[in-house]
């Protein structure tokens, strides 16, 4: 039911958030059983988001229980089938219900785990392991010594990896949670390793990127100015390839790191202790699992470093080109300034000649005026013309200077 605060804000979402705490229930059971766990994901390249269908537990005949869980990238189906002892050999895997047939499209199988739960372990588990055909086996006491888990981590003819769990003191609730952790270790380990093929696929390309980057860096030191544009195009092409590879694998490598963290958490939750004569279960997983995770992490880091180095080289070349352009602009501005200075000198020289020319023209007009007046009977003395010369020159010069000042 939706409730509101005093301000009228809906808070029904808090109920959904709280439901996440109970979103992944375990199948609680007791007694000898065969637990079959399968993880599948869509075969298409598109990975859907979190499914709207909540995990559910389905009852089947003869006490068999099936639980389906929808995760972000994958779906898991877990089936628990009660068994009757004694067993002479490993029980054959049963078929899942038709609705969860993982052998047909559009699913692809990620991992298949078969966990055989037996009663308390004998003092020497070696004959039991030999009876069920285990090879080089890892074993640990788990749950504070309340149970023992054993596996050789080999995939059998049915496509399942087999795990043997001896239950000593675990009740139905603890047993269900313990089996769930073991299945999650295998599931998240398989999901995490999906990044390894991507890392291997990128290895030759990364080597080529490194060689190209080294070559471009060396050429950057000695490339003449006229070849900068060609070098810029090559660096931009390399940067585009690196960014494309990073974008293609970022989600996968990020998921690998996240799933690896979950695997480590689930191993820690087993609370393992040593079983004499056997390598610990968690140590076996970690020693063969962590190198693959580190390979993915190193590939992601290498891509990031390549991207930074390429962008840095691109910035350096662009800076070098910009400095060259600025130098050319400086040279052009300096040449323009020199031309302007020469033009100014020419202009000043022209202004001097223009004063003389205008003064000469005005004095000629005065002379013609004086001659005209002389013919008319009005005689001007020679001193008048003599005095008018400096006056006209000074007046013309003053007018030119005022015009130049106004233009400035």
Automatic annotation (TrEMBL):
Give the protein name, as stated in the record.
Answer: DUF3422 domain-containing protein
Task: Tell me which InterPro entries the record gives.
Answer: DUF3422
The source's superkingdom equals Bacteria
Q: Does the keyword Membrane apply?
A: yes
Species of the source: Rhizobium johnstonii (strain DSM 114642 / LMG 32736 / 3841) (Rhizobium leguminosarum bv. viciae)
Pfam families with a match to the protein in the record: DUF3422 (PF11902)
Going by the UniProt record, its keywords in alphabetical order are:
Membrane, Plasmid, Transmembrane, Transmembrane helix
Q: Where are the transmembrane segments?
A: 349-368, 380-401
């Amino acid at each position: 039911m939706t409730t509101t605060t005093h301000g009228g804000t809906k808070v029904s979402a808090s109920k959904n958030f709280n439901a996440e705490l109970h979103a992944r229930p375990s199948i609680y059971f007791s007694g000898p059983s065969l637990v079959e766990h399968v993880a599948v994901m869509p075969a298409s390249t598109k990975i859907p988001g979190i499914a709207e269908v909540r995990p559910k537990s389905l009852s089947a005949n003869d006490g068999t229980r099936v639980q389906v869980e929808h995760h972000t990238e994958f779906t898991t189906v877990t089936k628990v089938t009660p068994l009757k002892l004694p067993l002479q050999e490993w029980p054959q895997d049963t078929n899942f219900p038709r609705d969860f047939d993982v052998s047909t499209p559009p699913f692809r199988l990620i991992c298949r785990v078969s966990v055989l739960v037996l009663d308390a372990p004998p003092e020497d588990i070696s004959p039991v392991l030999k009876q069920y055909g285990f090879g080089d086996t890892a074993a640990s006491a788990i749950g504070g010594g309340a149970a023992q888990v054993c596996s050789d981590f080999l995939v059998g003819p049915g496509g399942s990896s087999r795990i043997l769990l001896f239950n000593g003191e675990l009740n139905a609730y603890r047993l269900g949670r313990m089996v769930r952790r073991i299945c999650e270790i295998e599931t998240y380990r398989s999901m995490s390793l999906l990044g390894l093929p991507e890392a291997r696929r990128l290895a030759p390309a990364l080597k080529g990127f490194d060689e190209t980057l080294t070559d471009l860096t060396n050429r950057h030191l000695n490339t003449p100015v006229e070849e900068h544009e060609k070098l810029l195009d090559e660096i931009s092409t390399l940067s585009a390839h690196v960014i494309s590879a990073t974008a293609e694998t970022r989600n996968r490598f990020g998921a690998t790191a996240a799933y690896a963290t979950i695997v480590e958490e689930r191993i820690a939750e087993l609370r393992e202790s040593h079983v004499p004569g056997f390598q610990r279960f968690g140590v076996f997983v970690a020693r063969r699992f962590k190198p693959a995770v580190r390979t993915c992490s190193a590939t992601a880091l290498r891509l990031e470093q390549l991207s930074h180095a390429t962008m840095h080289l691109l910035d350096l070349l662009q800076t070098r080109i910009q400095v060259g352009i600025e130098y050319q602009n400086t040279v052009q501005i300096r040449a323009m300034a020199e031309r302007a200075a020469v033009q100014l000198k020419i202009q000043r020289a022209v202004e001097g000649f223009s004063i003389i020319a205008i003064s000469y023209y005005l004095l000629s007009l005065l002379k013609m005026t004086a001659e005209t007046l002389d013919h008319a009977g009005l005689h001007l003395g020679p001193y008048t013309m003599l005095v008018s010369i400096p006056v006209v020159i000074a007046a013309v010069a003053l007018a030119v200077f005022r015009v130049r000042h106004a233009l400035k």
